[in-house]
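User: Last request for today: this protein with manganese (II) ion, please.
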Amino acid sequence: MRLRVLGSAAGGGFPQWNCNCANCRGVRNGTLKARARTQSSIAVSANGSDWLLVNASPDVLQQVRESPGLQPARAPRDSGIAAVLLMDAQIDHVSGLLMLRERSTPLPLLATPEVLSDIATGFPLTRILSHYCGVRVHELPIDGSPIRPEGMPGMEVTAVPLHSQPPPYSPFRGRPRPGDNIGLLLRNPATGARVFYAPGLGTLTPELFDLMAACQAVLVDGTFWTEDEMIRLGLSKKTAAEMGHLPQSGPGGMLTALRRLPAGTRKLLIHINNTNPILIEDSPERAELTRHGVEVAHDGLEIVF
Ligand code: MLT
Ligand code: MN
Ligand code: ZN
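Assistant: Here's the final one, the structure of the complex with manganese (II) ion:
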């Protein structure tokens, strides 16, 4: 199986269109050692031509352009995107659905009932899409049972419910339900190899840690280095926890957990906010990650498992 990182930045991307923080300014004018990144998405394939798009980023068109493998060109109108799976109903993970409307058949869409309800109400994407290609919904179970997505033989995925918040426009904001946010366990049935992907991870329970410890690679929430990163920079009033993200540094931070994973597990951070110092390749924070064998995902990175 092949996993391709299409977008490794959090909502807003890097640099963010209106942001003049030190990171965004530095990457824009070329004075910092850092690479630009598009917004959060990966694609997974077992046969190299039919892909499961995991999250539909606002940058999906640019991401497809930069990933020739996602355009197998078998017919006058064709795409390697066989289906889309959503992990939450956040703008950076769902608004790209609107860009996929030119299909001639309904878009196969895998999501939990909670995410499907948010994108039918608070952000009524499926209602809008019904005037174009429409969607063919497959509800994702969150009881731990694996599914084999249709049209993508040789792939097994399991949704793992996570503790977090639905988006601000959800009727359930402040009253989170299991299924609002999921992590994804990807398994190659031929080899048994597993990869865990969770771009939004607010709480790391012991059960989740055990699941991660049984994987070949984990790609997890790299949004913030510190809990008060956005507040200290004067860019927001929200803490990392309030946004549903576990910061990397500090006691109980993501780095403490990643360091306890088995030595053979490949550890990558993804969904990185533009304020995070780990984006700067010669920063002390990046050096700390490297010392602990933790990688920072970038657009175009591929994992074969
Ligand atoms: C988040 O995960 O917190 C989002 O990236 C926020 C957003 O897209 O505005
Ligand atoms: Mn996000
Ligand atoms: Zn910025």
